[in-house]
Design brief:
The protein is of the alpha/beta class. It is about 35% helix and about 20% strand. The strands form 3 sheets. Strands 4-1-5-6-13-12-11-8-9 form a 9-stranded mixed β-sheet, sandwiched between helices. A two-stranded antiparallel ribbon has the order 2-3. Strands 7-10 form a two-stranded antiparallel ribbon. The longest helix has 19 residues. The protein is globular and about 75 Å long. It binds manganese (II) ion. The site of manganese (II) ion (MN) has 8 residues, from loops.
Length: about 270
């Protein structure tokens, strides 16, 4: 009898533990020509390794479909992909602009806007970081090699696999990113030719490459968003304990543990 009692307790406890895992929505790539929705498995494994349940979110064809999907998940990962269309930040396309995917731009923006409206936790990765910045009013360099003023820039489009880092980033100490990683310098991978130019209002830069290229932004406390220019999911898929923490932080935030970031006390100059 005692045995049955304890096994029932164990079963109940494990069901509760399963129920507590948050659903982490992952935006997916969309190919009109192949008629597919897809995402690299690195994202899926990173979420699993961090204790979340990955939920792939196919392209939303209208804002209602995006809102309905976001309502059901606890957090959103905006994954990597094509260049963001420059119309969204008021520019004409430069000749070095890469491929864009307008249907995906729309879908990702709806997902992000609903996530913010419902105060769901967001982690932006690569394109996801750029799209976040643009959605909230920032701008981009359409192409680092031809537009970035501080040259020579470090290599941001590495020519080897993503499981190996290519350049360093310097992390701001008064940031969520630093709280998570506990390091002022991180070695990261890099697969981008675009980068943030003007940072969106209410976001702050929390990591930069040695050439000054913006590599991470945060929107705390106004927006529950951390966004990075590199691909931490490659490292987290491999079981890298340090990089899994970035995804564990998303799981934490998905469970409602919002970060408290001290805002620097910036004095406004008096205007006479
Ligand atoms: Mn980079």
């Amino acid at each position: 009898m005692k045995k049955i009692f304890w096994s029932m307790i164990l079963v109940t406890a494990s069901i509760c533990a399963i129920a507590q895992k948050p659903l982490i929505g992952i935006s997916t790539g969309y190919s009109a020509s192949e008629n597919t929705a897809s995402v690299r498995y690195t994202y899926v494994d990173a979420v699993v390794n961090a204790g979340g349940i990955p939920v792939l979110l196919p392209l939303a064809k209208d804002s209602l479909a995006a809102a309905e999907a976001i309502e059901r998940v606890d957090a959103l990962i905006l994954s990597g992909g094509e260049d963001v269309h420059p119309f969204y930040y008021g520019e004409e396309p430069a000749s070095a602009l890469g491929g864009v995917n307008v249907a995906r731009d729309k879908s990702d923006r709806w997902l992000l806007q609903t996530a913010v409206k419902l105060d769901k936790a967001v982690l932006g990765i690569c394109r996801g970081e750029q799209l976040t910045n643009v959605t909230f009013g920032g701008t981009l360099y359409q192409d680092i090699p031809s537009q970035y003023p501080n040259r020579p820039a470090v290599q941001h489009n590495q020519r080897f696999g993503g499981a190996e880092p290519v350049h360093h980033v310097n992390v701001a100490k008064d940031s969520r990113l630093y709280e998570i990683m506990q390091q002022e310098q991180l070695a990261v991978n890099s697969f981008h030719h675009q980068a943030i130019k003007e940072v969106a209002p209410d976001f702050k830069v929390v990591a930069t490459a040695p050439d000054g290229v913006v590599e991470a932004i945060e929107g705390f406390p106004k927006y529950n968003i951390l966004a990075v220019q590199w691909h931490p999911e490659y490292f987290a898929q491999q079981g890298d304990k340090q990089w899994i923490r970035l995804f564990e932080d998303l799981v934490l935030r998905a469970n409602g543990n919002k970060p408290v970031i001290k805002q620097p006390n910036i004095r406004q100059p008096k205007i006479r």
